[in-house]
Amino acid sequence: MTCPKCGTPMNHQAEKLVQPIAAEELAELSSAVDGLLELVFACPGCGWIDSRREPATPPASA
Amino acid sequence: MSEHAARVVWEQVALRPGVESELIDVAALKIPVDDAGETAKDPAFAETMNRADALVIVTPEYNHGYAGLLKHVLDTNLKEYVHKAAGVVGVSAGVFGGARAIQNLIPVLRELGLVTIFWDVNFTTVRRRFDDEGTLVDDSFLAIDKFLDELLWMAETLRYGRENVTIGGSG
Questions:
Q1: Is the whole model's pTM more than 0.95, yes or no?
Q2: CATH number for the domain including B20?
Q3: Which residues of chain A neighbour B82 with C-beta distances below 8 Å?
Q4: Which terminus of chain B, N or C, has fewer Cβ atoms within 10 Å?
């Protein structure tokens, strides 16, 4: 992830378990951790924090 | 009385070289009360939390708990708190100085991703500590300097970690 404030590549510093609230989030539920993972990033350039949800694991093909 | 306590701690923070601080009254934030969590986020407050390296949370104790409004406000952010330092200041009319409110608050802060320090500040018997003008007249057992020493150490260490140590050890 690139810092939206200064353009520096951000450091992936944390993976925080969160519980789904919205209906669309339920579809993204990870069976591995019983929730969703919020991937948290910090900018070494300016300290800005950003995050994104971990994409759902695609179902295994038969 | 909690406002007096908050101001006293804030003034001590302001004396630390290289530290920028902001005093926030959660009651003054424009956060709706008919919703909760990140959907009720206040952009200005979220940006302040994003830029912060540490939080000093001052809370009164009511019925052995912390203020409900404080929880409502804290719940409006998440990523902004992760791997940041937090210290808690308790305020109460009795001799425990908000200790029971602090103990109730610590698990909440942990779930929000904050890293709590092992020093607290306890404003015990708070009405005897301030005069009518809100001036602190009894600073016994507060140890605000020790609290801030630990908080700033944790804040600096966690900032380095956030920006340089990758989760899982890769990169």
A1: no
A2: 3.40.50.360
A3: 13-14, 16, 40, 49
A4: C
